[in-house]
């Protein structure tokens, strides 16, 4: 029996994903189609919900359900890990409905979606340390949650956004620490010191900031900068790990 390779499986999944929902969803009244989508959504059947919501969105783009369909799509795309589609729908909805009553929720979902982009199933599965991975999605998520707190401080999602910002701050600080360590191992002493100093300024209350002092001390010792060595040793004594 011929074994399917990962690339083969991906090709099959892409072909399936490219099929139009209009080809499989019957032509029924929008109210009935929306009711079916809600049943699927409540059951956690994201694929079925997406098919029906996409059919509604394409067939009745300016119908009575238009705004709610887009909001539902934002949610089910996130739950189904269709993150690029989720972000595209968020951008479209925000552009068309800048003052919508659920604008805070949409911004919150934008943060969640960006945050999810920083996650990798394979990394989670094999417990791979992701501190040295590109943190751009994490930076975007941090900005989204910060904007939410600034614009909607009394939002129902403000408290959770604040909690997520704390986690993201540590994620970003860990990346800076990994970068500083990379420079140290490459004997780029000045670059390592500069990265540590930037980390300490930007994320001073993180574990990574404390750990960066050790990297900075090593770089100073290589450069034989006695005054800097002494100052850093004093900082380490004041900030034990």
Automatic annotation (TrEMBL):
It comes from Aliivibrio fischeri (Vibrio fischeri). Its main location: membrane. InterPro entries: BamD, BamD-like, TPR-like_helical_dom_sf. GO terms for biological process: Gram-negative-bacterium-type cell outer membrane assembly; protein insertion into membrane. Residues 27-234 form the Outer membrane lipoprotein BamD-like domain. Belongs to the BamD family. It is found in: Cell outer membrane. Part of the Bam complex. It is a lipid-anchor. GO terms for cellular component: Bam protein complex. Residues 1-21 form the signal peptide. Part of the outer membrane protein assembly complex, which is involved in assembly and insertion of beta-barrel proteins into the outer membrane. SUPFAM superfamilies: TPR-like (SSF48452). Keywords: Cell outer membrane, Lipoprotein, Membrane, Palmitate, Signal. This is Outer membrane protein assembly factor BamD. NCBIfam families: OM_YfiO (TIGR03302).
């Amino acid at each position: 029996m011929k074994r399917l390779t990962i690339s083969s499986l991906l090709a099959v999944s892409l072909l399936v994903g490219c099929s139009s929902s209009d080809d499989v969803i019957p032509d029924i009244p929008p109210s009935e189609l929306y009711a079916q989508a809600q049943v699927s959504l409540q059951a956690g059947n994201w694929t079925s919900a997406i098919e029906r919501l996409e059919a509604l969105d394409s067939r009745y783009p300016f119908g009575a359900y238009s705004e709610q369909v887009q909001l539902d799509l934002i949610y089910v795309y996130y739950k189904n890990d269709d993150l690029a589609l989720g972000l595209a729908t968020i951008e479209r909805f925000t552009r068309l409905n800048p003052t919508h009553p659920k604008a805070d929720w949409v911004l919150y979902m934008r943060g969640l979606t960006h945050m999810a982009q920083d996650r990798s199933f394979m990394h989670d599965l094999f417990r791979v340390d992701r501190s040295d991975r590109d943190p751009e999605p994490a930076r975007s998520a941090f900005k989204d949650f910060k904007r939410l707190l600034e614009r909607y401080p009394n939002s129902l999602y403000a408290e959770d956004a604040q909690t997520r910002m704390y986690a993201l701050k540590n994620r970003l600080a860990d990346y800076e620490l990994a970068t500083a360590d990379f420079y140290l191992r490459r004997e780029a002493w000045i670059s390592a010191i500069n990265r540590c100093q930037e980390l300490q300024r930007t994320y001073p209350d993180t574990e990574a900031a404390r750990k960066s002092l050790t990297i900075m001390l090593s770089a100073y010792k290589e450069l034989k900068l006695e005054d800097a060595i002494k100052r850093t040793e004093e900082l380490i004594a004041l900030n034990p790990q």
